[in-house]
Amino acid sequence: MLSRKLISLLTAVAVSGGLLAAPATAETTSQVVEQTDADKHPVAYNGIYVMHGETATSTPVEGTDLPAGTVVTLEEGAAVESLRAEGWDISLTDNVLSVTPPVTVDGNFEIPLLVTYPDASTETVTVKVGVDYYVDIPGWVMLSARLLGSSEPLWGPHFSPFGQSSAAKALDESSRLE
Asked: Which Pfam families does its entry note (predicted)?
């Protein structure tokens, strides 16, 4: 335990040495930062889901306000060039992106767009593209799906635990008329 004299001595040294002095005050300065057009008008494009070999388009999300003089282009670089090398047809006209993936691809891809505003500020926007492929379903599978999706029972009109089907009722009524 510290003695009272030692505590008094340490307190005096701390106060006289400036250890407990008032904190220094700093001047506050303010700087006005103007927002660029890119900050004021963020752009987002709708995603695309397309079957391979077909064409789909994407436009800016509804409510996007682009100032007059804004130019949207495909961003030059490896991403777009590698897609084109795979056989993609990619074009951008009047802010509408049009893509046609080749029949050899499926999966998720991204296409970067460069938005250049009238004040020369820029923004990169990525359009997500999901590509799927048609499945060649054999005829017997389609027939089974139609039968399973049918409202008529599969085991016949007279053996249905749910009552007689409409086809069976019509057959029964026609046989009674004869």
From this structure: RibLong
pTM passes above 0.85:
no
How many whole angstroms separate alpha carbon 28 and alpha carbon 26? 6
Residue with tokens 């049009």: 98
Per-residue pLDDT of the chain (178 residues; tens, 9 = 90+): 556 665 665 666 666 655 555 555 667 666 766 888 888 888 889 999 998 889 999 999 887 888 888 899 999 888 899 999 999 999 999 989 999 999 888 899 999 999 999 998 899 999 999 998 876 666 776 677 666 665 555 554 444 444 545 555 555 555 555 4
